[in-house]
Amino acid sequence: MSPTRENFFSKSLTVMPFRLKRNLVLITAGILFTSILETGTMGIIAVFVSAISDPDIVMRSPKLASVLQQIPGELFNSPKNTLLTLAGAASALLLLKNLCSAGVTYAYSRLACKLDTHFGDLLMKNYLCHDYEWHVGHHSADLVTAGTWRRFMSVVWYMGMLAVNDIMLVVMLGLALLYAAPLVTLVAIVTFGLLAGSIFLLLRPRVDKEARTAASSEQRVNKQTSDITQGIKDILISSKQNYFFEQYQKDVTRAANAQARILLLTRIPSWAFETVGFMLLCLAVAGTLAMNENVSSSVISGKLAMLGVVAWRAIPAFNRIVNSLTTLRDNLPKADAVLDAILAMPDSTFSAEEATPLPLKKGITIAGLDFRYGTADSNALHSVNVSIEAGTTVGLVGRSGSGKSTLADLVIGLLSPTAGSISIDGQPLTPQLRNNWIASVGYVGQTPFFTDGSILENVTFGVPADRIDKGHLLHCCKMAALDSLIEQLPGGMEQPLGERAGKLSGGQRQRVAIARALYRNPQLLILDEATSALDQQSENTIKNTVKNLAGSLTMLIIAHRLSTVEQCDKVVWLEGGRIVMDGTPAEVLPHYRASLGAENDLPDSSGDR
Ligand SMILES: Nc1ncnc2c1ncn2[C@@H]1O[C@H](COP(=O)(O)OP(=O)(O)OP(=O)(O)O)[C@@H](O)[C@H]1O
Ligand SMILES: [Mg+2]
C-alpha cells in the first residue's frame, strides 16, 4: 500500500521531540504573518503600478479613496504625493516582506536539517538497540539504505512546509483580490484551482508508481553493492562478475529511469501554469476591452498592471504548490520506509555507562531448552539440558549444523530460548540481567569482526585510548600467542591491519580475536572454532593459556578438531539440535569418533576466509 501524506506527517509527529514541534508551530505562525505581509505589499505595488499610468486612478476608486482619506497629512493630497507615498510604502514593505521571507525560509530549512539529524540519530540508535535475533533476520544493507534515505524525511517535511507557505500566500492574495476585483479573481481562482487540482490528481498516481519503483530498485542496489563488496573473493573465484554486474545494472537502470520520469512529471505543472496564466491574462484584456468600448488606454494599462502584479506572485506560487506536493510524493515512499524503521524501534535503549560484569561462582544451568529461529520452520535446538560448573572447561562437539553456535549464542544471551531456561548461578538469564551477563563473557566466534584499525584497537575494541591498560593488553596478546607477530610488524601493536584485518592471515586474525576476548577479563570464555586456522605451535600456546586459565575461568570450547577438546573436564555431543551424550572426554569422544567413521578428527572447517 502506498503511504499517504497525512499518515506520514501524523506518524512522524509521534517521534518528533517537543522542541522541534514547537519550532514547527512558530514557523507556521511566521509563514502566516509573511503571507499577510506579502499580500499587503502586492496590493500596494499593484496600486502603485496603476498610479504610474494614471495618478488620479487612486482617488477615482471609491474603495481606495475611502481608505486613503482616513490618512491625515499631505501624503495623499495630490497625485504627485500619492505616487511618492505609494513608492515609499511599496519599497519599505517589499524590504520588510523579503526580510521576513528570508527569516522564515532559514527557519524551516534549519528545521528540516534538525529533523534530518534527529531521525538519523533515532535510526542508528534503533539499529543498535535491536537484539541479535532481529539482526540475524535482516540484511545489513537495510541500515545503509535507511541511513542514506533519512534525508528524504527532511525533504518531505521541507516540501510540506514550502507547500503550506505558498498555499497561505495564494489564499491571502485570493482574499485580497476578491475584495478588490471579485469577478476576475473568481475566474482566476476557479481556473487555477481546477488546473492545479487536475494536474495534481493526474500526476499523483504516476509519481507514486515511479517513486515506489525508484525506492525498491535503490534498496536492491544497496543490497547488491553490499553483497559484492563482502563477497568479492568468492565472486572472483567463481568468475561470477558478469552475473553480479548484470543484477546490479538492471536495478540501477530501473531506478535511474524511474527518477528521470519523475523529473519530467515534476516539470509539467510549470509549463501548464505558464500557458494557462498567459491565456487568462489575454482573456482579461479582451474582456476589459469588450466591456468598456470607450475606455481610455490608461485604465486598461492600470487593470493590466494589477493583473500583472497578481500573476507575478500567484502563478509561481501555484506552480510551487504543485511542484512541492509532487516532489513530496516522489520522496514519500523512501521517507515512509525510514519512518517505519524508526517506529519499529525496540523499547530498550543502550546505556552510555559500561555494564558491571556479573560474577560466575557456581555455574550455568541450561534446562529443557528449545530454540527456533524466527524464519525457520523447525527448532534448531530441542530439550537441551546441560550444566556448566564454574571454573570448568566444557567442550561442545557435533557435526556441522548440529546447533553448537546457536547454543553458544543462547548462553551468551544474544538469543532468547523459545522454551526452557538458562540460569547463571541459579538466576534466570532475563533481559534485565542480560547486559551485565554479556559484560562477563569473552567470545571468539567463527567469523570474528575487525575494525580497520591496529592490533591495539582490535584487541581493546571500543575502550578509549586513555583507559587502555597497556600491561594487561601485552599479557593478553602473549596468552593469545600474538607476541611474535607484534614484534615482526614495523608499527608493532599500532600497525594498521587494513579493512577487516585483511593484512593478517586467518590464524593471525583468530589470535587477535582471542586476545580481544581475554582483554575483557571474562568470567566465561566461549571459543567457537577459535583455533581452527592455527598451526600446531600456535594452538599449543593457546592450549597452555587455556590450561593455565582453567580453574579461574569457565570455558565453553566448540571444535571440530577433537584434539582441541580432549583436555576438557566435560564434553557435550550435539546432533540435530539434541544432546546425544555428555560426560568426560574419555566417555564421549570414542563414541563420537566412531559415529564420524572415516571422518574421524575432522580437519579445519573454518580456516582462512
Ligand atoms: N539465522 C538463522 N536463521 C535460521 N536458521 C539458522 C540461522 N542460523 C543458523 N540456523 C540453523 O540452525 C541450525 C544450527 O546452526 P548452528 O550455526 O548452530 O550450527 P553449528 O553446529 O554451529 O554448525 P557449524 O559446525 O557448521 O558451525 C542449522 O540448521 C542452521 O541452518
Ligand atoms: Mg557454528
TrEMBL record:
Give start and end of each ABC transmembrane type-1 domain.
25-330
Show the stretches that span the lipid bilayer: 24-52, 83-108, 155-177, 183-203, 271-291
PROSITE patterns in alphabetical order: ABC_TM1F (PS50929), ABC_TRANSPORTER_1 (PS00211), ABC_TRANSPORTER_2 (PS50893)
Q: How does it sit in the membrane?
A: Multi-pass membrane protein
UniProt-listed Gene3D superfamilies:
ABC transporter type 1, transmembrane domain (1.20.1560.10), P-loop containing nucleotide triphosphate hydrolases (3.40.50.300)
Q: Where in the cell is it found?
A: Cell membrane
| Name the UniProt record assigns to this protein | ABC transporter ATP-binding protein
Q: Which UniProt keywords apply?
A: ATP-binding, Cell membrane, Membrane, Nucleotide-binding, Transmembrane, Transmembrane helix, Transport
Q: Which SUPFAM superfamilies match?
A: ABC transporter transmembrane region (SSF90123), P-loop containing nucleoside triphosphate hydrolases (SSF52540)
Q: Name one Pfam family in it.
A: ABC_membrane
Q: Name one GO cellular component term.
A: plasma membrane
UniProt feature coiled coil, ranges: none
Instruction: Return one GO MF term.
Output: ATPase-coupled lipid transmembrane transporter activity
The record's annotation in PANTHER family points to: ATP-BINDING CASSETTE SUB-FAMILY B, ATP-BINDING CASSETTE SUB-FAMILY B MEMBER 6
- Per UniProt, residues of the ABC transporter domain are 364-601
- Reading the lineage from the top rank, the first entry is Bacteria
